[in-house]
Please model this.
Amino acid sequence: MQNDIKQDLQFFNELINDLINDELANPIAKAIPTSELNSKFDLELKSSPAIAEDFKKELKKLVLSTPKSSSKLFFNQLFGGRHSKAILGDLLAVMLNNSMATYKIAGPQVAVEKEIIKQVNKLIGYPEGCGGTFPTGGSMANFMSLVMARDKKDVEIKNKGMQGKLLAYTSENSHYSLSKNTAFAGIGRDNIRYIKSNKVGQIDILDFKKQLENDIANGFVPFYLNATAGTTVLCAFDNLAELSPICKEHNIWLHVDGAFGGTVIFTDKYNHLVKGIELTDSFCFNAHKTLGAPLSTSVIVVKDNRDLYNSFNNDATYLYQTDDENYNLGQTSFECGRRNNALKFWTLWKAIGTNGIGKIVEHEFQLANTARNYVKDNEDYTLYSFDNSLSICFNYKDFDPEDLCTKLYQHNKLMIGFGYFLKQGFVRLVTINGENTNENILNFFKVLEGFVSQNTDIIKRT
Model:
């Protein structure tokens, strides 16, 4: 087959139209057991090329059989929906195919990324001299913050390696990447302190203070606290205003993992959930989780841009050959050959404005209120979550939540996940598809209840 970009883009348009139409007709792709993958698809890569028509047929079948993460019935993980303006930016980034390492190879796209970083810092109130970058995701953003905190605590670490007994702190409800990141950074998984949470999933302030006092008395060196703006399960927001003074007193870097809920910075109605964010050292959020941007659209900002340079800058004369360091973004990034993940966020933000982004976030909270009120008003449901959360955690009658979610998936009805808090299991509905309506949310419960009524005998009970 020829390498013909115009011809392939025409086929791409055909595929996309088929996908959108199929998504409307069949919002949940048929679940395929892993044991059947090779029999259902011709995935084998051979020495000879595929016949053109066979290639197109197989690719179409593969696309239409993939889970539809933007459909009205996808509530499984912490992303959903698609915004057309962000899609436009991502497609253009693919075609332009710039690396964001230097100004010479990225040109004005560098200014696009710098403008986003500038405006995010302005929104959260960081002072002059702040900075940021686009990491590959929330896990990488958390890793970068940990490395910066480590290097700021001991400037010799990046040259001489670990010395002393450094300790990192996080919530027992924090993202699982913290454990991996401490291993990667040489801190060690055993040198994380998981702080207990209160009844709504926030870091328990008194437990944090007590743990700090005990560790310092035993000769450890606290250096980093990872707080959360929207925990993975309950979407709880840690109290930054109370945590910051404690961190300042003990010279602890305070990072806010806002991968899930951090986009509340765009709305005056809900930005109180991150009150005190201007007092932190770094903050990240994922526009692909709540704003309909394609994966991956992640931002990390830092109060002092020198910390990015301190940890991630490295001389490379073969690379940095023109322009000053402020426009050679590879000097403040973990990666070198980094794709342009900023353009899709810029096209979204430019098209609808800060107020438009805020409306998306507010709409998703309103959808959460609709779901939460439905659960509260129906005696067949038990609610385990709280107001001002994008997660609605519940159980339906006495059905086992894990089995119920699995059966809904296996029978192609809903994609919905389950979670645990304080050893209590429940169904976890996340309302982060901004294209959904109140009717779509109520239809979710209709589908769930209809499925249960017809399949009572096959669903486990608690």
Notes: The first strand starts at residue 74 and ends at 75.
